[in-house]
User: What shape does this take?
Amino acid sequence: MAGNSQRRGAVRKAGTKKGQVQGSGGVRRRGLEGRGATPAAKDRPYHPAHKKARAAAKAAANPQRRPSKVAGRAPEDGPEYVLGRNPVVECLRAGVPATALYVAVGSQNDERLTESVQIAADKGIAILEVQRGELDRMSDNGLHQGIALQVPPYTYAHPDDLLARAQDRGEAPLIVALDNITDPRNLGAVIRSTAAFGGHGVVIPGRRSAAVTAVTWRTSAGAAARLPVAQAPNLNRTLADYAAAGLQIVGLDAGGDVALDDYRADTGVVVVVGSEGKGLSRLVRENCDSILSIPIASSVESLNASVAAGVVLAEFARQRRR
Assistant: This one.
């Protein structure tokens, strides 16, 4: 209002003089004080990490609880689930160390389901009857056929353990190292070939590599239960350690400088296998003593990584039998 010197909305409290400022009683000062370090994500109740940590603790306390909502995969370092009647019965036949078999209520019985339940019962694997919705949440597309197998995380060996295994047997070490192999089926096939031809183990990188999953177990046809798989934090350093121990480091490549027919594997050998597309990485190739090629027909460009490993291992086994 014109002529009013007091600003609109300004209110003078009773009992205070004009120009006097009333204190906050220390409230504002306390609000400015530091509250200490920010809690870790897992310690903040409303943070997703806190919920994950709490769920993991519950799962550890009760390993036989019903499966969590995972889309056909398990969290890192957690159990995973094999879905479908053929995959499940194949895993059980292969001796995959399963911890639980889930069967949907009302599932139609057949030979595969009957055999799966029988094998699980014989091996002392927990058999749990669940609602079909529980299995639906474990699958991307719901094609579980009313059955799922829980597989625990794989326990990896140390690269040095493979040398000790060969030493205990009084044999020259024969080890396979994988570089740029990301398909668990290739890993399973390599494990199977290595076991079949007298190898002492397989080494995989700790990162950017296929891991031992249920698919790997199934492809290895049970060989993963008998042959150690070691995980190397740094593959190049592991290869250097093997070379220092007197082993020959042999890389496989179609454009190698030595043909398989001309190579003699009389001493300890590490066979390094790269992927069919990328081949060996530059640093791994530099750590190899020889690059080995497999003679094949000119009409074929290259071999699958696991097939190439099997061919070389078979030849080395033949040489050692002589």
Remarks:
- DSSP finds eleven helices and eleven strands in the chain.
